[in-house]
Amino acid sequence: MPGGETNKTMTTMLSLVDAFNEFGLIRKEPVLAMGGGLVTDVCGYACASYRRSTNFIRIPTTLIGLIDASVSIKVGINHGKLKNRLGAYHAPIVTFLDFTKLTTLPIGQVRNGFAELIKISAVGDITIWRLLEKYGEQLIETRFGRIPGASAEVRAAADEICYEGIKVMLELESPNLHEIGLDRVIAFGHTWSPTLELTPAIPLRHGHAINIDMAFSTTLAWLRGYISEGERDEVLCLMHRVGLSLDHELFDEALIDKGTSAILQTRDGKQRFVVPRPIGTTHFINDASLDELHATLRIHKQIVRDKFDGGVGVEAYVDFGDLGQDPSVFAARAHIVSATLINGSTVTSKRTLNGHNDDVLVY
């Protein structure tokens, strides 16, 4: 299947269904899904749909896929600009984890996945947090100790981080695989990021989007007295050191309002904002007003400007591999389409995305 976020669509999913049919896939024969989280998501959804339930074997090849997506049984696709809006709960019959696959990734993709480990540790495990804080840059540069010449110390730390991170994920998610319970620790960083990630003309990488969300949530925790100023800066400093984004110009009051409204629907009318209290443990906020969030945003942006050079991340935006097409062409086309729609003219392109004309769905 073609890679990239623009191909996480119903069209791609149905093309896999057609491929299963043409191949003559029999009832209990498993499909081998090998790739990043996007590939396993789309292929898993095709398997969930084909004959109502077809087995698949999952072999993730990215850090996000190995640490985060490998534990979840969620599969799915985007619907227009709505991320992961269509999907199912469909577990693979087995998942194989091979961390040598990290040597195939560019550093930007390793950094992208590093945010998921911050997510797990900052609100779930202080031991993992301390290792990330000690070895952060080295972990990314050595692909978690897998490239030739990496020190035994970094390799050992990487192994402990990855294994313990997966263990924490399993402990948190196994009792709640179908998300019946909505107070989810691993929702840290996933309140406003679903709205933010696809807002720029060239979308943010997932790890950078959730990191901005986590950084803001950390400032919120500090202002509420849940963590100290030192703890706040400890979190923000690690994020900044490894090159993850702390803020974005489009992360503004309007986006906070929009993201909050959207997440209330997902979380059954409650905010369930995840914050550290203290680092390594979780607290859920359900009583934040928009006025408080707006005030927090102003303070957060000031802190990031004063202490962290504006919080601009390294390689924060998707590239061809993430998107499935040249990002500059995507952005230029989106700008033309946006202007066309604003002027009230008819869009003539017939290329489809999720069964719709994608010209009316892009930014």
Strand arrangement across the biggest beta sheet? 1-2-5
The count of strands amounts to 9
Proper CATH architecture of the largest domain = Up-down Bundle
Note the gap between the termini: 24 Å
Oligomerization: single chain
Low-confidence stretches are 337-363
Residue share in helices?
40-55%
Structural class by helix and strand composition: mainly alpha
CATH topology label of the largest domain: Dehydroquinate synthase-like, alpha domain
Number of helices: 13
Mean pLDDT: 89
Instruction: Look at the structure and give the CATH class of the largest domain.
Output: Mainly Alpha
What keywords describe this structure?
363 residues; mainly alpha; Rossmann fold; Dehydroquinate synthase-like, alpha domain; 2 domains; 3-stranded parallel sheet; two-stranded antiparallel ribbon; 13 helices; 9 strands; 10% strand; disordered C terminus
Provide structural commentary:
- Helix 8 packs across helix 11.
- The protein folds into two domains: 93 residues, Rossmann fold; 206 residues, Dehydroquinate synthase-like - alpha domain (Dehydroquinate synthase-like, alpha domain, Up-down Bundle).
- The strands form four sheets. It has a three-stranded parallel β-sheet.
- With 363 residues, the protein is mostly helical.
- The C terminus is likely disordered.
- It is built from 13 helices and nine strands.
